[in-house]
Amino acid sequence: MAPNDVGSTGIGAAVRRREDFRFLTGRGTYTDDINRPNQTHAVLLRSPHAHAEIVAIDAKAAKASPGVVAVFTGEDFKAINGLPCGWLVHGKNNTPMVEPKHPILADGRVRHVGDPVAVVIAETKDQARDAAEKIAVTYKELPAIVDMKAALKGGGTPVHDAAATNLCFDWELGDKAATDAAFAKAAHVTKLDLVNNRLVPNAMEPRAAIGDFDRATGEYTLYTTSQNPHVIRLLMGAFVLGIPEHKLRVVAPDVGGGFGSKIYHYAEEAIVTWAAKQVGRPVKWTSERSEAFMSDAHGRDHVTHVELALDKDGKFLGMRCETLANMGAYLSTFAPCIPTYLHGTLLAGNYATPAIYTNVKAVFTNTVPVDAYRGAGRPEATFQIERLIDKAARELKTDPAELRRKNYIKPDQFPYQTPVALVYDIGNYDATLDQVLKLSDAAGYAQRKAASKAKGKLRGRGIASYIEACGIAPSNVVGSLGARAGLYEAATVRVNPTGNVVVFTGSHSHGQGHETTFAQVVSDMLGIPMEQVEISHGDTNRVPFGMGTYGSRSLAVGGTAIVKSLEKIIAKSKKIAAHMLEAAEADIEFKDGKFTVAGTDKSKTFGEIALAAYVPHKYPLETVEPGLDETSFYDPKNFTFPAGCYVCEVEIDPETGVVEVQSFSAADDFGRIVNPMIVEGQVHGGLVQGIGQALLETCVYDKDGQLQTGSYMDYTMPRAGDVPSFKVAHSVTACTHNPLGVKGCGEAGAIGAPPTVINAIVDALSEYGVTHIDMPATPNRIWKAIQDAKAARH
Amino acid sequence: MYNFEYQKASSAADAAAKIKAAGEDGKLMAGGMTLIPTLKQRLAQPSALVDLGGAKDLAGIKVEGNAVVIGAMTTHAAVAASKDVQGKIKALAGLAANIGDRQVRHRGTIGGSIANNDPAADYPAAVLALGATIVTNQRKIAADDFFKGMFETALQPGEIITAVSFPVPEKAGYVKFPNPASRYAVVGVFVAKTGGGVRVGVTGAGNSGVFRAHKMEEALSKDFSAKAIEGMHPPADAMNADIHASAEYRAHLVGVMAKRAIAAAG
Ligand SMILES: Cc1cc2nc3c(=O)[nH]c(=O)nc-3n(C[C@H](O)[C@H](O)[C@H](O)COP(=O)(O)OP(=O)(O)OC[C@H]3O[C@@H](n4cnc5c(N)ncnc54)[C@H](O)[C@@H]3O)c2cc1C
């Protein structure tokens, strides 16, 4: 390979993930792998009740238990702020949401099973556990509020005294009058009630946190399993513990998956940081899996009624929906924005529906807080739209693919202003539809259906389109919508004297492969091999700033910040090259890692420029500073809008209700693709989670608020054997407002898969007259739907 | 996990002595697949654990006359891979091959499974349907006398299962409907035809543990075919119900799994 031939590591190359060597050989450093000298261990005592008053806590025996260093309860945190919420939603009539305190440790009342009541800090984890069992808590149980509809009727003790009917906010978006008018003139109206099931995120690595306090410097360090260490520094430092940034370092080392659940600031982080100073020793906490089920923020949990108005030709005239969104017992960091600005604003989907109105009521219940989970709001929106369109197609006896095509926003309509606030910059939905029909062999379906029938199986085929808003987000826009933070990203590109490069990025990597993808961008732009590039992230003392990784924003926002810094590096390098080559700056061309005087063979390599910048002997010192190190903050101009179309075929055993996913085809448009192998992996992972939601996963509380799915014995995670080998393809419309033309790919699969699978199941069951089935479509549910449909016919 | 004293037995006799010496709060450990999670969750607090892992005389598979005798400490993986079991009672090898996951099959044992009598475990259906004999260090217990409802057996404190003796049937089949999360049986039906007639063991479904489906047995004794039990299933009110399967669905599945077990028996 020629020194500057970066074809194999540049943009578009399917480079293997460099981080995998350490992950696959057990050499990663996760939070729980870190041990601080003289460290203590924390164990939390959690509420066994969904709703109860704490009458008394007797910790005497626990304090006297062997090895115990300290025991803290809600009393000790009374004067400390609660966990902050990062988004203030205003409802109808500009009414602000009800925002009750989320205490670090329960403050007189427990509000969900798993709500932390006390913390024991001891020499060993087992000693802490022993002592925690000796804490005697006297509870006065209260009736649990679990069902959202019942909760809104009020009565009994509400979850929070400030919300008598458990309503957090009542929010609306869209033109109600115009939408009602559209329905009034409709030739056909399709209606659907559906549930978007609650999910437990289940990252492979459980949460963990270590607090450390240096009495010599007054500096705190928190090691934590976070997707966004700077956000945690801000939330915990400024809003909870009152520690200024320069005295608080937050490190998020290798993190084993997040899916959203590691965005939020959790009580345990504040507890270990605060307690480290109290006990004068580092304090470590690592969640157990069963603890994770009752303390990691959950996802989804919407109950929706949705309606579509169509004219006589099948053109969409209007859509309206009413959604109840479960907030759980407290407001998690971004909870209020999920069912509103990441859900209501997506209700146009891929379609030119002229009038849309949505109303979302957010409800407190005695359950674990609910927040963003892979897709966050967009899967809920997509599920509604795509199930509804499918039902309409069936009622109108038209081909569901063609009904979609008829109503798509067409390529020449971009930029497209939807009736629900967003402006889509670009897309080509017909292209992804055509691609998926081919990929999924639409032509051979009749034959496959007949073959299934011959085996006694019901075959069904489902299609769904999706669009998502990624690359969040323009700070002024989200600020006007209630965000209490900006959503830019920062990056420093540091060129060292011998020409190698370290990138410090605010985008944290916890499975996304940034260490590879970002290095490819650098390799491509600077014309140096990827081996000369290191990507550093996850430490507030190294990275200038960062808003973190979520909402498929890393490449579109974080990557653009890197590009901006690289552009500054190149611009400065040209000045240095011009001086060294005794040419005008305007005559310097940069290509393949070389600065050349146009039209000559006089050139300097990137390495030579780097060395000159740090050994500035023959150097334009009067006009150019030494060094080659540039930082940029990039605030996106718009969201990005990845979109696509999926097809799934299922086979159902009518005797047992068991569904087998026979094939799944995905055609996505993620804009320009830096590493196709990583993108394909992200799609696969998303699809598995989406299929998991459709068929297997669900978080169940009983009427007393007890968690029925508190372990893998009952919570069904998708396994390799539950999914087919995926067929994936992509087409490209480049994003118009970031330099790489990229859109984001992390959530697509989890957004598009659920309606695709359910549409296929309903198609298979349509011969019985089944028109809808809720997720997860378990064998029991399918069998019951068949029995009910049969009974209804008789 | 609470602290306990760990003892490793070198033989069945040594285990019997050790468990006796440990007294009331002593506990036998086989593969530990059920016991260790229980300890980790602090749901049990034994004073001493007597590990049967070193008792070589408790493991192994032999053919004795018209019976396959499986030592208590034989793992599910060993049963699944055994040429003797595959040759004589194929359905039993197939049952073992579908227990839990690979890790569980290489640790979990037949003795542990039967002693534990989880209402969703697979082996109890086979033990009942094949009319097996449970051999302990004190006596022999017929299958019909061994299982006493959920998690209860005829074993006395300190009594150790040493082997299970399975008579070789003419035909046998086992089909289970696995719990999608745990892979235990939501419903599992073992059907066995011997000179003495037909026996049907049902696990996972009943609200008082593994049971024999006597009506199906009668019908199948006359005509060993799926048709003979078409539409037959136990009453829903005798069935278990949970978030995975209602009582009605379980009752229905017993019928479906029974028919499929007969088809599998050939
Ligand atoms: C994830 C998972 C999935 C599983 N899936 C299935 C499944 O699909 N089907 C299924 O049938 N099972 C399943 N199991 C259970 C497993 O297969 C074992 O059979 C079970 O855990 C008990 O066997 P063990 O050898 O591990 O016993 P242990 O856990 O060591 O002991 C269990 C109990 O039996 C007692 N005991 C053990 N050996 C003897 C003996 N020789 N005499 C007297 N008492 C004794 C012990 O004291 C203890 O009370 C699953 C287990 C797990 C963890």
Overview of the molecule:
- The complex is a heterodimer of chains A (794) and B (266).
- Chain A is of the alpha+beta class.
- Among the domains of chain A are: 202-295, Aldehyde Oxidoreductase, domain 4, CATH 3.30.365.10; 488-634, Aldehyde oxidase/xanthine dehydrogenase, molybdopterin binding domain (Aldehyde Oxidoreductase, domain 4, 2-Layer Sandwich), CATH 3.30.365.10.
- Chain A is 28% helix and 22% strand.
- Chain A has a seven-stranded mixed sheet, sandwiched between helices.
- In chain A, strand 27 (659-669), helix 17 and strand 28 form a beta-alpha-beta unit.
- The longest helix of chain A is centred in the last third of the chain and has 28 residues, at 554-581.
- Residues 1-5 of chain A have low confidence and may be disordered.
- Chain B has 266 residues and is an alpha+beta fold.
- Chain B folds into two domains: 5-51, Uridine Diphospho-n-acetylenolpyruvylglucosamine Reductase, domain 2 (2-Layer Sandwich), CATH 3.30.43.10; 58-265, Uridine Diphospho-n-acetylenolpyruvylglucosamine Reductase, domain 3 (2-Layer Sandwich), CATH 3.30.465.
- Chain B is 33% helix and 23% strand.
- Chain B contains eleven helices and twelve strands.
- Chain B has helices spanning 12-22, 35-40, 76-81, 83-88, 90-97, 102-107, 110-116, 123-129, 143-146, 214-222, 247-265; strands at residues 5-8, 26-29, 48-51, 61-64, 67-71, 133-136, 140-142, 161-167, 171-178, 185-194, 197-203, 211-212.
- In chain B, the strands form three sheets. A five-stranded antiparallel sheet of chain B has the order 4-5-8-6-7. A four-stranded antiparallel sheet of chain B has the order 9-10-11-12, sandwiched between helices. Chain B has a three-stranded parallel sheet with strand order 1-3-2, with helices on one face.
- The mean pLDDT of chain B is 96.
- Chain A binds chain B through residues 126, 129, 133, 290, 655-656, 696, 700, 708-709, 712-717, 778-780, 783-784, and chain B through 1, 41-42, 177, 179-182, 243-246, 249, 252-253, 256.
- The complex binds flavin-adenine dinucleotide (FAD).
- Flavin-adenine dinucleotide binds next to strand 2, helix 6 and helix 7 of chain B.
- Flavin-adenine dinucleotide binds at residues 27-35, 52, 72, 76, 99-100, 104, 107-109, 111-113, 115-116, 121-123, 155, 160-161, 182-184 of chain B.
